[in-house]
From TrEMBL:
SMART domains, A to Z: ANTAR
Family matches, as InterPro entries: ANTAR, PAS, PAS-like_dom_sf, PAS_fold_3, WH-like_DNA-bd_sf
Residues spanning the membrane: none
High-level lineage: Bacteria, Bacillati, Actinomycetota, Actinomycetes, Mycobacteriales
SUPFAM superfamilies to which the protein is assigned, alphabetical: PYP-like sensor domain (PAS domain) (SSF55785)
Domain PAS: 24-69
NCBIfam families cross-referenced by the UniProt entry: sensory_box
Name of protein: PAS domain S-box-containing protein
Length: 205
């Protein structure tokens, strides 16, 4: 869990296409080494912080934003102190009430100290747990190779973003992933499910 004074490791962003304007949560600013509210994000600034070896791949993700397509990327950023962070960035279309494309919205997860857990062991742990939150945490741990605290932070972040109880978010998430066969494409499916929660009122057990 996040203690007092510790940096948040999950944060949201938005990009408005017509204005070519970015917004980022305080947590995302801190991942890049900035104090909240001190540096407005721009495309040039974001690209400047990408690791040189990852910049071409991230540029392709930005191109998807401009085309109004969902995207996800795991890459490195270098903060203002010269520290390298591994991040997972997931985004989807941001739509107006009439269905028109406004831009993109999504989230960053700092996975710099992520667990490299064994897939078989993770699946076994998920099967052994009956609690919705623990099951959802297990799936997120396995998909993003993050630890249990980071997975819970991701559920809490989605809960706060949507004003939905954490348990309901977890239950909807588990309902949505039921039947998915884990493969190389699984993470992209998890991306889409997570960013579109909540999708419906959960069924009460």
């Amino acid at each position: 869990m996040i203690g007092p004074g510790q940096p948040q490791r999950v944060g949201s962003f938005r990009y408005y296409l017509s204005e070519q304007r970015w917004e980022w949560a305080d947590a995302v600013a801190q991942m890049h080494g900035y104090s909240p509210g001190t540096m407005p994000p721009t495309t040039e600034l974001l690209l400047k912080h990408k690791h040189p070896d990852d910049r071409e791949r991230v540029t392709r993700a930005f191109d998807k934003i401009l085309r109004g397509e969902p995207f996800s990327s795991r890459h490195r950023i270098i903060d203002t102190h010269g520290r390298t962070h591994w991040v997972v960035v997931v985004g989807d279309r941001l739509l107006a009430d009439d269905g028109g494309l406004l831009g993109a919205s999504g989230f960053y997860i700092d996975v710099s100290d992520a667990m490299q857990s064994d897939l078989t062991e993770a699946v076994a742990e998920i099967a052994a747990s009956r609690a919705e939150i623990e099951q959802a945490k297990g799936i997120l741990m396995m998909s993003y190779r993050i630890d249990a605290d980071r997975a819970f932070e991701l559920l809490v972040w989605r809960s706060q973003e949507t004003n939905t109880k954490v348990r309901d978010i977890a239950l909807q998430f588990m309902q949505a992933v039921t039947g998915i066969e884990f493969s190389a494409d699984t993470t992209q499916q998890i991306d889409r499910i997570l960013i579109n929660l909540p999708v419906a009122s959960p069924q009460q057990p």
